[in-house]
Write a structure and sequence with these properties.
The structure is a homodimer of 252-residue chains. The longest helix of chain A is centred in the C-terminal third of the chain and has 28 residues. In chain A, α2 packs across α7 and α5 packs parallel to α8. The radius of gyration of chain A is 20 Å and the shape is elongated. Chain A is mostly helical and 252 residues long. Helices cover 57% and strands 0% of the residues of chain A. The first copy, chain A, starts with 49 loop residues before the first helix and ends in an 8-residue tail after the last helix. Chains A and B meet through α8, α9 and α10 of A and α8, α9 and α10 of B.
Chain lengths: 252, 252
């Protein structure tokens, strides 16, 4: 099924020694039967491999719909939403262009499903963090959760961040609401810490935005094949965030 | 001359109350003679107005080439490089499509001139910071310079960060070298501070990358019409960066 690939220019990542490798398969390529002989296929980025994507799309969706979403993530991340055609998305998984409309109302509908799902999963990832009343530790876990999620799902997260211009007004409003909820979790915890005197924060909104920036900007340069695993990066950034919030060094 | 505008979807920025306003003029619209009656034109984003763009493009370039670059910045930032045609770029400033090739070899050549110039100017902005031997103060000035530049030129900087995939291999290598030099300035200063014991930095590369992320991610959400001027944001982020580097709170 995953015989082709979205053709597009190479990735724009050029910093820090993290660069996309060329690859010609997508999605569940790992499950694909190879018929002997050396294959020219290169493994897809790990965050697009079956496992990581399987975590994202709802099990309620038909397999073809999930395959279309995965293919679209790849196309949008390589060519951008506006330069991607519905034919690009379907051809990469061996379907006719019309097959997209069996599952989605439009190319914009595909983008919205990706962006909505990505934002909901990121929100779930930070809401799942344990709050045992120790605000400093809780904020550290929130930041680690945020960073690890964006690193693990960096290609999907990249589409979620960079292709919003492709959404219609109603869908954009829905995503804005999800982002508001996401930021609110972090803002509430930082505000609590400031009130408790655990943190020294001149401006909660600015500091929270900066912490979110650390998590979001990594989708620009992160590679799962790079030096830092999502967990290592998450731990380092949680420490940086707590430093930004002015926690007492002695308490670390 | 600046009678039209690059038509494209609205900006994707949806966070923090910063959203692009609709506008129909570009570049040196401020200098345009208005012939009475209420104009439907809306002011362009301030970082694309005559002053800020005039700082960027070389005076050695003919006026038409500079107008093409400004138009291209707008088109690329709204529609993306791949979805922008040379006709989009020229039509917005009342030129025929062929006019682009008088000044640039290709659409990719226009993108490279934008990206190269943006990176060179950002590098100049941090190289211009005074180093009086006080490493803490020097790093604060570097971060403030980095942040202020990206805020002031956020639309150009956005193209510099998000449209790199449109560059050919040689041009991408040239940009990579400029980015290496930029990071080296910051890394060198942070390393010096760590050696002096002014900073407490577990991993210089990771910390420098995080500081650069603060500056770069603001091109995604910053609006010159928003609450923070480039200078206010620069000051706040310089403090956050110094906190990340573990400077003694008492020394602040």
């Amino acid at each position: 099924m995953f015989a082709g690939a979205c053709r597009g220019p190479a990735s724009g990542r050029i910093g820090g020694g993290h660069r996309n490798v060329a690859w010609s398969g997508i999605g569940m390529v790992a499950n694909r039967k190879r018929r002997g002989g050396p294959s020219k296929s290169v493994a897809p980025p790990a965050d697009l491999a079956a496992g990581a994507v399987g975590e994202l799309w709802s099990d309620d969706l038909p397999e073809a719909a999930r395959a279309l979403l995965t293919s679209a993530v790849l196309c949008f991340s390589r060519k951008g939403f506006h330069a991607t055609t519905t034919r690009d998305i379907t051809a990469a998984i061996g379907l006719s262009p019309g097959a997209l409309y069996v599952h989605f109302p439009s190319k914009e509908g595909v983008l919205f499903e990706i962006v909505r799902t990505g934002h909901e999963r990121a929100l779930e990832a930070i809401r799942a963090q344990r709050d045992d009343g120790d605000t400093r530790a809780y904020v550290g876990r929130l930041v680690a959760g945020l960073v690890a999620w964006h690193a693990r799902h960096h290609t999907v997260a990249r589409v979620c961040q960079y292709e919003l211009a492709g959404l219609g007004p109603e869908h954009r409003a829905a995503v804005r609401e999800l982002r508001r909820r996401f930021t609110a979790v972090l803002r509430s915890a930082v505000t609590r810490g400031a009130r408790e005197g655990v943190f020294d924060v001149p401006d909660v909104n600015r500091s929270v935005r900066a912490i979110v920036s650390l998590g979001i900007d990594l989708v620009r340069w992160y590679s799962i094949e790079g030096a830092d695993s999502p967990e290592v990066l998450a731990g380092y950034y949680a420490d940086l965030a707590l430093r930004m919030l002015g926690t007492d060094a002695a308490a670390r």
